[in-house]
Amino acid sequence: xxxxxxxxxxxxxxxxxxxxxxxxxxxxxxxxxxxxxxxxxxxxxxxxxxxxxxxxxxxxxxxxxxxxxxxxxxxxxxxxxxxxxxxxxxxxxxxxxxxxxxxxxxxxxxxxxxxxxxxxxxxxxxxxxxxxxxxxxxxxxxxxxxxxxxxxxxxxxxxxxxxxxxxxxxxxxxxxxxxxxxxxxxxxxxxxxx
Length: 194
Fold this sequence. Notes:
Distance between the termini: 44 Å
Oligomer: single chain
């Protein structure tokens, strides 16, 4: 992904391109979308496009990152709790939006979705872990590694749940995640702080 410029014109261009990609994804499969389609829909020239993006995959990654960051922030605000991962809210959101999510992950763009989700979630978890009082040096592994582990564990359970046609409720999946991933982390924090 190219370095994001922060001036108004660049922000406007990014908004036009992201909106065009969002509209196009609702009309056709990712594989069938071309850069020319994006240019025409956004009503911009190719030099403007390439000043901000490498290719359509770069647009897709930017769009997914933006969507996932917004979703995580909304879920954290909605839960009203100080959570490292809003896991229950994420499972509930996925259950409510299964058709859109399956369309996103069952084609070639699915790989990009999972990569962006893991990277974005890892960064969010790392920030949350660093904000816990007294936890600065309380992990047996570096904080980025702990964050990656938790994000990967959550997303592995989410993938399994989707692939298995969601045989358990969001509440049960949240409970499984809490039991499998989080007790070891909390035990480590408590042990180190004694």
